[in-house]
Amino acid sequence: MRIPDRVSNACFQWVHGRNLVYNTCWEDPRIDREALALGPDHSVLVITSAGCNALDYVLQEPRVVHCVDVNPRQNALLQLKLAGIAALDHTDFFSLFGHGSAVHHRELYHDALRPRLEGFARRYWDKHIDFFRRGPGRASFYFRGTAGYFARTANQFADRVLGIRDQVERLLSAATLEQQEEIYLREIKPVLWSRPVKWMVARDTTLSLLGVPRAQRQQVERYHQRGIAGFIEDCVETVFTRLPLHDNYFWRVYLTGHYTHDCCPEYLRPQNFARLKAGLAERVKVHTNSVAGFLREHAAPVDRFVLLDHMDWMSAWRQDLLQEEWQQLLDRAAPRARFLWRSGGTETDFVDPVTVERDGRSTRVGELLTYNRELAARLHPLDRVHTYGSFFIAQLTS
What we know:
398 residues, two-stranded antiparallel ribbon
C-alpha cells in the first residue's frame, strides 16, 4: 500500500472507529423494497447504518430483520429509535427524530428511553443525548456525527459565504421539476461550484467524514473523467433538476437539519409508527459484529442481504475479508436468496472473481449468482439519494 493510501486509510479508520458517522441512512429504501420483494417468511440481514432502512423493511412484515454493524455507535442509534418506538408517543418521537431536537430531551431520555437501553447504547447516550438539545445556537441532531458535521459546515458556507439560503429554500419548495431546474441552473450552480469548493469536496479527509473511503473514491475515478469532484457535481445536479424534491427527505434533512411531516422516512409517519409500536419493531434484532462474524455465529438461513457499499473498501485493501464475507454469505444463504449492494463505481469487477468453497470445490462467486440487471437498471435512476455509481440485484442460482 502506498503512503498516501496508508494515510487516507488511517484517517478513515480513525473517523469510523471513534465517531457516529451516519445519523440517517443514505440509501433509498423505496427502490430496495421493490428489489427485495419481501415476504412474511423472509429473514433479512442489513448493515445497520442509522437504522432508518431496517425500520422501513420491517414495515413490509418479514419474519425478522437482523441489523449488523461493526460500529457500536450506529447500533446505539438504532437502539435509541427502538426504545423511542416502545416508550414514546408519536409527537415526542417525531420531535427527536423528525425535528432533530426536543425542548425536554433529557426528561424523555432519563424517564422513558434510558431504562430500555443496555450496555454500550446506554453509556453512549448518557454522554451524547444533548445531540438532541433544542435552543439558540444548538445544532439539530442531523448536524451531528461526522456526516452531520459536514452538512452543517456546508450549510454555513452556503448561508454566510455564498448567500444562497433563499434560493435553497425556493428550490425545496418548487412545485415542478421545471422550477427546480431553473432555480438550480440559474441561481445556485453558477456560485456553488467554485474552484475552492471542488478542491474541498475532493479531499480524502472530507470524504472520510461522509463515510467514503479512498478505495471508493478510486472506484469512482476509474469511470468518471472529471474525478470525484465532477462525480459529486453531476450527482447534485441530477438530484436538483431531474428528481422531484417534494419527497426527497435524504437531501432535505441535510439542507435544513430536519424532516417535515410530509417529507420524512416511513418510520416517522404516524400510521407506520403505530404499526411498529404494535409489535413490528420487535422483529428488528441488533448485532455489533462484522457481516462475516455475525453469519459465522448465526445458524439459520437468511433470505435477503442488503450490503450497502462496504465492499468497495474491502475490494481495495482487504481481499481476504471480501473472500471470507462471501464464503459466509453463501454458506448462510437460503435457496434463491437475494443480495443487494451499491458501489461508487459505475461498474464493479471485484465480486464475481471472488473464490469460495461450494459443494466441496472452489467456485467463483459470479458462477453462483444470477443478476437482475434489467430491474437494477430501471430502479437505479429513481434513487433519490443518487450518489452511487451502480446498484446490483443478484439472486443465488438454484
